[in-house]
Each structure stands twice: as C-alpha cells, then as structure tokens.
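Ticket #4471: complex job returned nothing on first submit. Input attached below:
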Amino acid sequence: MRGRWILDSRGNPTVEVDVYTEGGFGRAAAPAGASKGSKEALELRDGGNAFMGKGVLKAVRNVNEVIGPSLVGMDSLDQKEIDMKMIELDGTENKSKLGANAIVATSMAVAKAAADSLSVPLYYHLGGALAQTLPTPLLNVINGGAHAGNELAIQEFMIVPWDFSSFSEALQAASEIYHYLKSYLKEKYGKSAINVGDEGGFAPPMRQTREALDALVNAIKKAGYEGRVALALDAAATHFYDQEKGVYRIDGKELDREGLLELYEELIRDYPIVSIEDPLHEEDWEGFKEAVKRLKIRVVGDDLLVTNPKLVKKAIEEGVANAVLVKVNQVGTVTEAYEVVDMAKRASWAAIVSHRSGETEDTFISHFAVGSGAPAIKAGAPARGERTAKYNELLRIEEELGRPKFARDAYFRT
Ligand code: PGA
Ligand code: ZN
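Support reply: We reran it on our side without changes. The output follows.
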C-alpha cells in the first residue's frame, strides 16, 4: 500500500492511496467539501505555512506508516473487516486521529483492488447481480452560496432529467439544457455570467432565488424538455443562517424558520421543484420535521446527517427528513456509507450518492451509486473534468450492462 498527496479540483492537496494485493490493484483519492456539516468525520490537515495550512502529509504518513502495515495479510474481499480495523486503529468518534481523508481513500482503494482481483467491475463487486439500475442524475448548473462568488444564498440549483428511458438520454438532455442556459445567461447578464463555480455550474451575478429558477425553466423549455426535467435545490441553509440573530439571510431579507418555509412553499408552487436539501440549518431538527410535513417533496439531509449511520437511524425514527445525501468521505468508510444506503431503502427514504465540491478524477461514486442501488447521484454540472468523469463512467457502465434500467422518478416518488 502506498499513500501520496495529489491536487484536487480546487488546487488543494488531498490523499491518494494505491492498494496492491496478490491479484489486484486499486487506486482512490479523497474528495473535499467546502460547505461541510459540523459533525462530519475529520479531514486531517497539517496547518502551518505549506499549502496555506492545507497540506496532508500527516494523513499520508498515517497511510504509509500506520494503516498500511496494519492491513498487511488481510483479505481485500473482507471490506467490512478492513474498515472496522481502521476504525479501531483510529479509536476516535470522528476519525480525527488518522484522518478521514486517509481512511476513506484506503477504504475505496481496497474495494477497487478487490474488484480487480476478482476481475469484475467495481459496481458488480459492490452490488452483485442486483446492480442493474443507473441512477437519476441531479446536475448542479447554477452555483451560489459557498461555491460561487455571487449573491445567491441557495448553494445549488439542479436540473433532474428523469422522464427518459436511459441514463445516456438523460445526460444528453442535461448537456443541451446546460448550453441553452449558457446562452440565456450571456444574453441577459453579460459575458461574466458564464464563469463557472466549483462544481461546474454557472455563477451569474444574480441576487434573487427566482432569477436562477427562471433561468432554468427557460433553458429547459428552449431545449424542448418541459415536463421531462424537474428541478432540485440544495439550500445548504446553515451557511446563510445567522446564529446570533436566529435569521436566514436570503433574497435581501432576514427570515425566521416560518418565513423561510413559506418562501419554499411558494417556490414549490411556482416551479417544478422535487427536492430541497438542507432547507434549514443543521441543528434545527424540529424545523426539518415541519419541512417534511409541509413541503410534501423530498427533504434531503446532508449537513444534517453527514452520512452517519447513527444520525440517520435517529432521523428515520423521528421523521426528520425523507431522503439522505451519501458522501463516503463524510463518514470515512465504504462500509458505513453502504449501511446508510441500506437504511434509507428499508425506510423508503431516497439515497442520493454525492460528490464533494472539491473533487478528483476518481470515479468511485459512479460505481458506488450503481452497486448500492441508490436511485440518484449528484455530481455537479455536465462540465469540468472532475464532474464529467463521474457521468462518463456511468455511460460506460450503462453500455457494459447491456440492458440496464434507469431509475427515472424513483428518486422523488414518495
Ligand atoms: P461540499 O458541498 O462538498 O462543499 O461540502 C456539497 C453539498 O453541500 O452538497
Ligand atoms: Zn448539501
């Protein structure tokens, strides 16, 4: 096993791990978030001056000097045992000793090495013969919040191409809409409006939530896909919540929980929105319950649940959401992330496998989405190499499966 640092899509260092077994090889890299939930597993950074404090040499050393030697002799097919061994070695609640970046890159590389040693595709290794369905993509085409230098409070404005018979047709529609959107933005807001944010979506100089939604509706119509492509939002509301004053700053206003829920109700009435992620700040479990009852669409927990099986279990019991975002690096191991997808399925929640805003060329999540049978994937815009890497891998998986299924509306059908 060997760890090293490589650069992520924001130009920051991250951990990459190579795993060699007797008959296989796997390589995987940790992604990195910018608008993180406070309860996420810890990404170990060096501090100091190098890389503005973001170096990962300690995490790399943990891979090479602690994790690697401890896993020698274990079987890469025993993913669970290997993940539990790393959790034990770390010994902390949030993987802060060895670093979740060190652990997750190893965990994913082990899965890839196991698939390689069996000479089967990774999605098949993860899901077996049941891995037949391609997820519905949620593509983030307008970026705001912590991911862009504009005034939009809502972080992600996504299109959801669902009424198609295959993933590739859905992706084609998304690409066409993306280009109609580009022309619309250029014409209405000028050339600078087509600069892109961290996830490949445009970051136009808009101030109002409705401006972004109008732009999406226009592009969908122009492309000829009205009724076949829905909208989804990631509010990431923790990041426009003023904790001291107890208000949300959005659209030039200061709203309390009730005001924000009313705003969502109006938006859902006026636009084809099928889900809202983190509609309220991450501590407001009561507010989330209220959102599930009132909004009657998928209410997705990301910062709220941080892919943590314990939190997801509690949230299911209490009805705090009805969908969960699944980011392998938020929890740190493939085993725990898989458990979250399983829990969601049993509770009739939707699981959305997700990238991070800081990504690499790694396509693990494409295989994980198909392998775990999650009905949806969110991997950014249909642009920027680290985003298209995920979608392109899904095209290849679709081709390889021969007669695959497409999840269509399985994501938002409640
Ligand atoms: P992050 O955000 O990867 O920057 O944390 C993505 C999201 O909030 O879904
Ligand atoms: Zn989110």
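The pocket of zinc ion (ligand 2) is lined by residues 234, 236, 277-278, 302, 325 (CB under 6 Å). Closing as resolved unless it happens again.
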